[in-house]
Amino acid sequence: MSTLSSSSQTSASSHEDRLRAGTQISTSSEARKFLDDHDVFIFDLDGCLYDGNITFDGVGSLLKRLYDEHKDVWCFTNNSSKTRQQYVDKVTKMYPEVDGLFKEDRVLCSAYLTGLRLEQLGITRVYVLGTQNLVRELESRGITVVGGGEADSGKAMDAESLREINVDPTIQAVISGFDVQINYYKLAYSSLCLQLIPGCKFIATNPDAQIPVAKGALMAPGNLCIVRALATASGREPDCFIAKPEPFAMQAAIRKAHPDTPSSRMVMVGDRIDTDIHFGLNSGIQSLLVCSGVTSEERAIAASSGQEDRKDPCVWDYWCVDLSTMEHLLEQQDN
Amino acid sequence: MSTLSSSSQTSASSHEDRLRAGTQISTSSEARKFLDDHDVFIFDLDGCLYDGNITFDGVGSLLKRLYDEHKDVWCFTNNSSKTRQQYVDKVTKMYPEVDGLFKEDRVLCSAYLTGLRLEQLGITRVYVLGTQNLVRELESRGITVVGGGEADSGKAMDAESLREINVDPTIQAVISGFDVQINYYKLAYSSLCLQLIPGCKFIATNPDAQIPVAKGALMAPGNLCIVRALATASGREPDCFIAKPEPFAMQAAIRKAHPDTPSSRMVMVGDRIDTDIHFGLNSGIQSLLVCSGVTSEERAIAASSGQEDRKDPCVWDYWCVDLSTMEHLLEQQDN
After folding, report:
1. How far apart are CA A222 and CA A243, in angstroms?
2. Does the annotation flag B271 for ligand binding?
3. How close B169 gets to chain A, by Cα (Å)?
């Protein structure tokens, strides 16, 4: 167990006890110890490994270093708009060092996880609010998709045409994923499924309220906006959320690959408290906050110095400025 | 004060005391007394005076009767998708008996009321999520509208184009009205206005979660769905809702026409508990529930017999099956 993090020493105690900010990693020996203390590294993508299409200096070397040291490297994004292979392609294009090392079976995205969950539930026919890539991930598991992608996009509505909607009674679940082609027809159709089809499930791929754009300067509407609209329209709350901070990915994928690895040797690395850090907490594993995305360094420093934030208590075990800093510290250690 | 309604006798006491169902109007003498006891009648439209484009038998005669007896007749709808004149045209086309009697200055719709409220607040430039008719009502009061109607409809989005949004910093409020042309661009633009423009207000025309379609058999998404999506995207709750059950219309219009009429002689007539009946309660006036729309007769009977409904306690002073029944009872009295 790390001696860097005071909070990690209380990991067996209640969540309440862990509501404090962990220790900053700011020296080479701290960085080295952090690597030595963990075997499984789960990285968030946007804001952690890169910013949109902008690479971060040193991140490729850091990832390569982890592979060289036989660490198990995963990526986990709440974004449901790409397939797993598309993330592999994106990361290896940005960081050629990991080409051939980083593979599809180590990518966790909400589209993939939603397919897993539907399989568990025995659901084979769904209505989708989401992108064509979400549709592809679901179809690749043998699930029949109504709606989704371009289907039903561009349909405007008036009160009269609402009377003509007949929902497909064989739909077993409505899936709310991030959908930039959201429109009134899709909201109306899916809320009618939830109201009229007995047993129809309401499944949300992820609970992200906002999406950072342009290095966090703009916050665009995330999937939770659509989920809230649909919950209001149908009078029903979602039956479940799939992605971070829900621990489903841990049970369904990571723990399967690591039945015997102690939780204290697994770490979730990310820039968002509400998703990444809480996933670590909910999964009972360690967490490292990086300040290259949504959460600012000022915020981490304030938390470390004991300033309370009642709305969003601080729960990470470790934090560092960003992964570039982490790699530079490790390089100093090398020399 | 009416002797028909047990609850009206406690009108001076707290709201808690009034959480019970009022008396049914089922005899000619009860109907006659109800008319005699009130001077100002405020009718909800859809589900009360008509169902979509279907007229209700006797409603024209009832309205004509009220005019003949020198009652003041208002209509009040939460729908923001038509102008006041359009409602006058619709009602007089359905019920030619009131042609020339029912006039624009007695129509309260959320589009009109929103204009009034903006005028009060000194707001002259807004971004609108809503129909072209809402835009017209606002423009008729000298308000400059960005967005609204066909503007920005049909715009799909990707993450990259989000970076190119520049909000107009002179927008003073975002208005969320019912918008069947809702899309991701509009949600993103309006949520950025709320996040980035200092002092920008968030105003919702009405809090209707669902809209009944096809005699209440289908419930379609109402304005509150858009409001909840926008609140989630912006991290802000609305500064205000304008229409029923908010008492704004009472202060801004009805009370102005009736500075000296006792509240006990004014009555809100409608089919929805959450909007119509609560408007009566919030405005301190009487209320009559009709069972020709969202609320069923079974519900009213159950409430009258004392069956509790914790989620939506019963608060009406009177109820009757529908306005056709009311008119038929009055006709029996005539003969």
Report:
1. 13
2. yes
3. 15
* pLDDT tens readout for residues B253-266: 999 999 999 999 99
Residue of B nearest to A131 (CA): B158
CB-CB under 8 Å, B179 with A180: no
Q: How many C-beta neighbours within 10 Å does residue A315 have?
A: 21
| CA-wise closest residue to B47 among B313, B279, B269 | B269
Residues β-bridged to residue B266: B40
**Each residue's pLDDT expressed in tens, for chain A with a length of 335 residues:** 333 333 333 333 344 444 556 889 999 999 999 999 999 999 999 999 999 889 999 999 999 999 999 999 999 999 888 889 999 999 999 999 999 999 999 999 999 999 999 999 999 999 999 999 999 999 999 999 999 988 888 776 776 777 788 899 999 999 999 999 999 999 999 999 999 999 999 999 999 999 887 666 778 999 999 999 999 999 999 999 999 999 999 999 999 999 999 999 999 999 999 899 999 999 999 999 999 998 999 988 887 776 655 555 668 999 999 999 999 999 998 87
Q: Which pairing describes strands B266-270 and A50-51: parallel, antiparallel, or unpaired?
A: unpaired
Domain with CATH 3.40.50.1000 in chain A: 23-78+245-334, 111-241
Q: Establish whether B46 is a catalytic residue.
A: yes
B72 as an active site residue: the answer is no
Q: Does B312 touch chain A (CB under 8 A)?
A: no
DSSP for B49-69, please give it: TEETTEE-TTHHHHHHHHHHT
* A150 touching chain B per CB within 8 A: no
**A244 assigned ligand-binding residue:** yes
- State whether residue B86 sits within 8 Å of chain A by CB: no
β-partners of residue A146 are A127
* Cβ–Cβ below 8 Å for B232 and A218: no
> Which residues of chain B does A46 touch, with a Cβ-Cβ cutoff of 8 Å?
none
What CATH number is given for A23-78+245-334 in this structure?
Answer: 3.40.50.1000
Catalytic residue among B37, B46, B179, B322: B46
pLDDT digits (tens, 9 = 90+) for B297-331: 988 888 777 665 555 566 899 999 999 999 999 99
Q: Are B107 and B87 in contact (CB under 8 A)?
A: yes
DSSP-H helix ranges across B171-215: 184-196
Taking the Cβ of residue A184 and every Cβ of chain B, the question of whether any pair is shorter than 8 Å is answered with yes
**A211 neighbourhood in chain B, CB within 8 Å:** 159
Are B191 and A156 a contacting pair at CB < 8 A?
A: no
Model ipTM over 0.90: no
| Residue of chain B whose alpha carbon sits nearest to that of A178 | B184
Architecture of domain B111-241: 3-Layer(aba) Sandwich (3.40)
Residue A231 and residue A213: Cα distance in Å, rounded?
Answer: 26
What is the C-alpha R_g of chain A? 21
